[in-house]
Specification:
heterodimer; A: mainly alpha; 14 helices; B: Rossmann fold; OB fold (Dihydrolipoamide Acetyltransferase, E2P); 2 domains; 6-stranded mixed β-sheet; 5-stranded antiparallel β-sheet; 9 helices; 27% helix; 32% strand; Glycerol-3-phosphate ABC transporter ATPase (chain B); ATP hydrolysis activity (chain B); nucleotide-binding (chain B); ABC_transporter-like_ATP-bd (chain B)
């Protein structure tokens, strides 16, 4: 096959892509680097790159001062919990929209997405009041509900585009074979949509893990996840860059590792339906 | 048992009447073919019988019971889809067994039924494969296997052969006919291919725009079409329709003559014509001609004919094979 791109163009595009990639990666790299410095070196100008005294004392101190694992456990429960609850609603919702569409299905989808465009702070007061009155403040259950609801539109959209690609014939065949609706979904639809469901779950776990607005505003200690753990290091007594970096590194590490190993799945999920 | 009766079955999508009201009787054990051009409603009618679409009005009786509001599985019918619609994540064995599992059959019963269906359809060696690893013909056989094991009151086929290549299609046609002779179960078969309809059916139902144009045995439809539409749709190449003086001579608006009912001569005949294109198939020759004062016609002559472009010929219709139609396109019967 003839390569339409000239070698020069190819090289310059590659260099450009690398620069963009490094720019995006640099803050994370700098954060990890800073977490191994002493507080003094962390703020020194000019900053030192590699030639500093590598130390683990920040990590030890961070663990000593606050219980990392408690926060991490909350993060896991919130991310996984909201994803599982969301999946139950999103699968049924996407099934209805993909296989039994009406004239208004597209409108409903767009409306769902439009709720994501509203700044969350706009509903902070009502939601806070509801949480206060129902005793949901600083509870995992309350946060799971909020995280599940704010990410539901994205889950429905992703699953909808996936389900659209599944031939209706196969579901009808299952119906002819005597499968009831739940069985049709569990034994036929879901196994065929495994890649789509996996990437939807993955993305939702990442979104829920990184969500900071609601987790910071609605928790204090019991249900506080890693976002609150990081925030606790930017205290009014003054910034501790190295400890903050260590805390942040600990907070993003799990999700970064998951993301790294599943990037293929994730990219496929996000671009599914774009190219047939 | 599998006698199916449709009473004033109607289907509308919004204000559009796709099926304005169909009455039809299908006897137990009959092989019925729904045939018609694309968009004539034949697939919709089949899906109404299957229960995959809800009827807007009317009754669907299977062995005397109205099932119009029953779920598909409750109707005791099996369906074979055009796209095969196999479960891609299951092995052939599990594809065939799925319906039995849903019905809650025991493992032994399932195994015995799957094995015997696989034997009938020559699939025994492929039971552990996934559909993706099968050829088109094998996939179609799996789809049929899935239909057989449920021991249905009737089989519904929705254009099952249109995804296969020509040679395989002829084979599968014979296999399905053979299967019908063996099982003696009612079969309803939808196709747009009139050759499939003619060769397989006990009874053909010709549909156009959701209406039944004619119901009858293949040769009845061929010999005595009820109207111009059926006359033109059944038979290949298409029937020639001629108006003018020739029709007036037969006391009708238009006459129809099938290409195979015209005798070709280079010396004399009723209609003078000029050959435009001659298609030599060996066993027969198709002549596309321009008849003087009558327009284009098609002739199907047996054997080889040493004719080519611009040759002058004469055509003589077989008198007792002329079909007469009135101004509304309805058949008038012999003159």
């Amino acid at each position: 096959m003839e390569n339409k791109q000239s070698p020069l163009g190819y090289i310059s595009f590659s260099i450009f892509a690398w620069i963009v990639g490094l720019l995006i990666f640099f803050p994370i790299f700098w954060m990890v680097l800073t977490s191994f410095k002493t507080e003094l070196e962390a703020v020194s100008i000019p900053p030192s790159f590699i030639s500093f005294d590598w130390t683990l004392e920040n990590y030890a101190e961070v663990q000593e001062r606050s219980n990392y694992f408690k926060f991490a456990m909350n993060s896991i429960i919130l991310a996984v919990g909201s994803t599982l609850v969301g999946l139950v609603f999103a699968v049924t919702c996407a099934w209805a929209m993909a296989f039994n569409p009406t004239k208004r299905t597209k409108d409903a989808l767009l409306w769902m997405l439009s709720t994501k465009m509203m700044p969350p702070v706009g509903v902070l007061v009502p939601i806070y009041l509801v949480f206060r009155d129902w005793g949901l403040l600083d509870t995992r259950f309350g946060l799971i509900m909020v995280l599940f609801l704010i990410n539901l539109p994205i889950m429905v959209w992703m699953l909808y585009t996936y389900f659209k690609e599944i031939p209706t014939d196969i579901l009808e065949a299952a119906r002819m074979d005597g499968a009831t609706l739940p069985k049709e979904i569990i034994f036929v639809l879901l196994p065929m949509a495994v890649p789509g469901i996996a990437s939807t779950m993955l993305l939702n776990v990442i979104l829920a893990w990184n969500e900071a607005f609601w987790t910071l505003n609605l928790t204090t200690s019991d249900a506080a996840p890693l976002t609150a753990f990081i925030a606790s290091y930017s205290s009014p007594e003054g910034l501790f860059w190295a400890k903050l970096s260590a805390a942040s590194t600990l907070a993003v590490a799990p999700i970064l590792v998951i993301g790294w190993f599943s990037q293929k799945q994730l990219v496929r999920g996000l671009t599914f339906g774009a190219v047939k | 048992m599998g006698a199916i009766r449709l009473e004033k079955v109607k289907k509308s999508f919004g204000t559009l009447d796709v099926i304005p009201g169909v009455d039809l009787d299908i006897n137990d054990g009959e092989f019925v073919v729904f045939v018609g051009p694309s968009g004539c409603g034949k697939s919709t009618l089949l899906r109404l019988i299957a229960g995959l679409e809800d009827v807007t009005d009317g009754k669907i009786l299977i062995d005397g019971t109205d099932v119009a509001n029953e779920a598909p599985a409750k109707r005791g019918l099996s369906m074979v889809f055009q796209s095969y619609a196999l479960y891609p994540h299951m092995t052939v064995y599990n594809n065939i067994a799925f319906g039995l599992k849903m019905a809650g059959e025991s493992k032994d019963v399932i195994d015995q039924k799957v094995q015997s269906a696989a034997k009938i359809l020559n699939l025994t060696d492929y039971l552990e494969r996934r559909p993706g690893a099968l050829s088109g013909g094998q996939r179609q056989r799996v789809a049929i296997g899935r239909a057989i094991v449920r021991n249905p009151a009737a089989f519904l086929f929705d254009e099952p052969l249109s995804n296969l290549d020509a040679a395989l299609r002829v084979n599968m046609r014979l296999e399905i006919t053979g299967l019908h002779q063996e099982l003696k179960t009612t079969m309803i078969y939808v196709t747009h291919d009139q050759v499939e309809a003619m060769t397989m059916a006990d009874k053909i139902v010709v549909l156009q725009a959701g209406r039944v144009e004619q119901v009858g045995k293949p040769m009845d439809l061929y010999n005595n079409p009820a109207n111009k539409f059926v006359a033109g749709f059944i038979g290949s190449p298409k029937m020639n329709f001629l108006g003018g003086e020739l029709a007036a001579k037969h006391n009708c608006h238009e006459i129809g003559i099938r290409p195979e009912h015209l005798t070709v001569s280079t010396e004399s005949g009723v209609i003078a014509a000029t050959v435009k294109i001659a298609e030599h198939l060996g066993a027969e020759t198709y002549l596309h001609v321009e008849a003087d004062g009558l327009g284009p016609m098609t002739v199907r002559a047996t054997g080889e004919m040493p004719l080519g472009e611009h040759d002058k010929i004469f055509l003589t219709p077989e008198q007792d094979r002329i079909h007469r139609f009135d101004a509304h396109g309805l058949a008038l019967g012999p003159s």
